[in-house]
Structures are given as C-alpha cells and as structure tokens.
Amino acid sequence: MKTNDFPPRVVSAAGPEQGGARADAIVELQDVHFGYGSGLASVLRGVDMQAPAESATAILGSNGAGKSTLFHLILGMLSPRKGLILFDGQPRDEWPRNRLSRFLALVPQSEYIPFEFSLLDYVLLGRAPHLTALQTPTDEDMQQALDALEMVGLGALWQRSVPALSGGERQLAMLARALAQEPRVLLLDEPTSHLDPSNRGRVLEILRRLLTQKVTLIFTTHDPNLAMSLASHAVLIRQGTVLAAGPADTTLTAAALTALYGSPVEMHEAGARKLFWVG
Amino acid sequence: MSTPSSTVAAEARASVSPIGALDQVQALRRQGQRRLWLLAALLIAVTSASLFIGRYPRPYWMSPWVLGEDAMAQQIVWALRMPRVLMAVLLGAALGGAGITLQMIFRNPLVEPGFLGVSQGAAFGAAFSIVFLGSASLYVQGLAMLFAFAGLGLSYFLAQRLRYGGWVLRLVLAGVAVSAIFSAGVGLLKYLADPLTELPEITYWLLGGLWSVTWRDPLLVAPVVLSSLTVLLLMRWRLNLLALNEETSHSLGVRPVFERALMLTAAVAATASVVAIAGIVGWVGLLVPHIVRRLVGANTQLSLPAAMLGGALFVVLCDDLARSMTAGEIPLGILTSLLGAAGFLFVLAGNPIRTRE
Hints:
The complex is a heterodimer. Chain A is of the alpha/beta class. In chain A, 32% of the residues lie in helices and 26% in strands. Chain A has a single domain, classed as P-loop containing nucleotide triphosphate hydrolases (Rossmann fold). In chain A, the strands form 3 sheets. A 6-stranded mixed beta sheet of chain A has the order 6-7-8-3-9-10, sandwiched between helices. In chain A, helix 5 (139-151) packs across helix 6 (167-180). The model of chain A is unreliable at 1-23 (pLDDT under 50). Chain B starts with a helix and ends in an 8-residue tail after the last helix.
C-alpha cells in the first residue's frame, strides 16, 4: 500500500519537466521494493522516483528511512525484490559493469583509509572504470586525476598523504576521485554534513559548477535548506515509501517536512529565499 | 557521446596553471621505480654473496677462489647452499607479497599471511605427521600444506556461515577461531608425542627453518609460489581498490567477491606452500610491507613488488645469520621474529604519518 497521500503528490505545474519527467529522467526507480533477508520487514515499499538529467535531486528522510538502501540499490550492490531501476531509460541489469561505473560515481559520506596513499594515488583510483583489470594508469589518467584535483582546489596538495588531510579536504578528495571517473551522474551521501561553513561553501560552489557542466547530482541530506538551495527536485522518503516528490519549491513545504520528520518545521521567507527552521 | 566532465577537466586544465605538475608526478614515479630496481639489484647481490656465507671451510666467509680447488666446497655450494638460498628467496617473496596483499584486502595494516588459520593449520599437519606417520619430510610437508589449505577453507566456510558483522570482520573472527582450534590440536599432539624423539621434532619444526632444504624443496613449491605471485603482480594496481570502502570499490566497477577471493587465494596458496617447507617463520609478512610503504609509498603498483623483493632480501639475510653465526643452527623463525618485532617497533616509533616530498 502506498502512503504518499499526504501531501498530495505534486505534479509539476511549471518547468521543462512538465509531462515529460519520465523522458527526461536519467535515473528512474519504478515501484522498487526491498528488504534484507527473506521474511523480514521491507525497507523500501514501492518507491517511485525520477532524477531529471543535468539537475540536482535531493533525497530527504529521517535516519533509517531507507536513504542508504536506496543508494545501494542504485549502485547495484543490492537488487530490488520487485520493481525496476532505469538509467537513461535502460534497465540497470542490462548495463555492463564497467560502463555503469563510467556513468555513475559515488561520493560516500566518509571513508576510512588505513594506508598512507598520496592524494594523487587516491584520486587516480577513480580511473579504474576506464582501465581493464590488468592495466595500470597511464599519463593520460594521471592528467585526469590532476585535473580533478584542480577542480576541487586541491591541486597543490597532490603529494600530501590522505590520512594527513583535514576532514574538509578528505571530503573534497572523495569528490575529486568521483570526478576522475568522468561520470554523468554523481551520487552524494550527505555531502556537507561533516563540514564547517567554509568547506561547506567550497563544496556547494563546486557542485553548482558541476551543474552548469551537465553533470546530474543526486544527494541525500538532512538539511532542507541545503536541498532548497541546491536541488531543483526533491524526494521525501518516510519509512520506506515516498511521501512526496517533485520540484523542490513545491515539494519542500513546512507541512510536508513536518510530516516527514514528525517534529514541527517552520518556513520563513527571507527575500526571495525560503528558510526552514526545525524544532 | 562526449561525457560532460571531460569539459570539466578541460576547463580545469585551462583555468588553473598545472605548471608541469604531470612532469613532477612522472619524476616521482620514476624515483619510485628506481628504488624498486635498486632493491632488485641488492637482492641479487645479497643472494649471490650468500652462497659464500656459512661455516665451511671456516666461519662466516668462503673465498670464491676456494670453489675452484675444493671439491667439498663445490658440493656444499651446489647441493646445500644454492637450494637453501633459493628457498629463502621464495619464502621471503611469498610472505612479503602475501602480507601486503592481505593487509590491503582486510584494510588493516596489522594483518599477516599466517592469518586465516594457515600457519596453525600447517603446524597441526606437521605435528600430526610427526606423531602418527613419522618425520619423513614428504609426509610432514604434504600434511602441512594440506592442513594450511584446510585452515583457509575452513575459515572461508565459517565466515560465510557467521551471522555477525561485515565480510572482513567475519573472516577475521573465523580465522581466529580456526587458528585456536588447530593450535589446541597442536597442544594435544605435543602432549601425546614421545618426549624424547617426537616432541623435539615438533618443537623444532614450529620454530621454523631451512636447514633440511634440498633441491627437491624449492622445485616442489616454485610452480605454486611463482604462479600465485604472478597473479598478484598482474593485479598490483587493482589491489588498491580493494582497500576502499565496499560501496566505493563497488561504484568503481570492482567485483569485490570475485576479485578478493582470487587475490586472497593466490596470497594464501603461496604462503601455505612455503610454510609447509620452512615451518612457522613469523613477522616477515607483517614488517616488510610497513618498510616498503615508507620506501615507495602505499600505492601497491610499486609497494607490492617492493614487498616481494624486500621480503626475499630480509629472509635471505636472516637465513645467512641463522646458518653462520654459531656452530650450530639458529632456527630461522627465532631470528625473523626477533629482528622483525624489533624492526616493527622501530618503524612504528618513527613518524607515523608520512608525507612524500
């Protein structure tokens, strides 16, 4: 049973997605069900979602709502019990492994690196999808990795050891590795949650620049203000079902967010901006 | 189809001055490669010199000129020292290469190749043979190898059955349990063994050493060891990817289950083969990766071959000491543990975070 009756699902009234959302969707989930182990409760129940190409889609939900599971399904680490996952309109199962990893890159929330890789060697790992199993990186790959480091502003630190980087720099390093993959879609798991305001600003600036360069972003966040400022689309997930989905300005409302988090959310208008206040 | 981020890369290249960064990268890479060749040259030099180290005709050093005149010297160098030195090279390369491979796969710099029940399995096999089948080297080595693989298989099997933690933790737990079971079995066999003949034999085997090596031994294990090490060498850059988060490595196109199993099997097969001949020679696979990472960096494209060369160098040197220092023979395992543990402390006491310049 779908419980996306509140608020009524918004069908976009404006914007290029109108009516054609499916055709434009670069990543699409159709009625996806998933549960860990048989007989256990489902984590996701009938999730429908579309991420339009060349724009940012925010996924919001409480802890345990199923956001991580959703990412693992999209990445192909897990397979849905039922339903379809489509990339560019083509079912995920029909994508060869290497092509998929050139299409889709992941920036995890954090990563534990037990060895003292140099920053360049670390970012160079993002070239793996462009190499066969027995190949080693070429000069071309190294140039790509250097470019990705320049892109996130860490070009000067390429010799630095990764464990010696600050938390913000490590986040940028993971982003650079994903960029070295040259993906069309970037999955970001809470891209700014560990960051101080200055690093947060840096990451946001880079993500905005990526959007102008036709990269599609799909990110999870606990911060409705981040979703509002970066994303054109939002998907609200509560207890494994889609509560609301659609263009960010109509989907992210005080009522919808209150229903999502189960605690009061107020919205304030500051000039042209909407600001959310939780609690 | 032009991928969007190639424009990203192009823009970055144009907007920021790369001031020959690629040249610097290449220079650093060449420096790493030079160090690797240096290590290889050093190994060849030490291995050749080792043929003249020993207790004949007098302690420590035999002049190469003696070889021309003395038939006994020829016999000793050809039939005893050469296979033994060769075996030391195989032993060290296998332990060093397997050590760094396992550390990457388990994402833990404190793992060593005897892990996963391999060492204790081999010890049990050897002790079982000594007590029940006699101490003929064929039986001892055969059973040691059999049980080394059984240790791995059992650990792997149990890890799949456990319902606790992630894949790495399950394998570690299974390995600890299997090692403990075999170790209890060794204890039982020691208790049953004849204290005058069999018990010393078991104890001596457990200390590890190459004193009984003849040409048969390196030739017996070389095919397994060399083919396993070749697999690891071919996948040396790919190994880096296995040290990342599971979800990251997956998103980079790695088939984690298959690739891990392949490299793990290669590493453990090499280890099991050499342990069957040499007994328990500890600390090589733990210490050597730490040293070579400091020498050529963590990237396994260089550090994996460096660990094989470094492991071989370390074991050949230790074995030189083992057979020349005293009139008797010092068990190799005692020396590698002593020097290995001391070296390990020394390395860890140094600056733990290393920045390459």
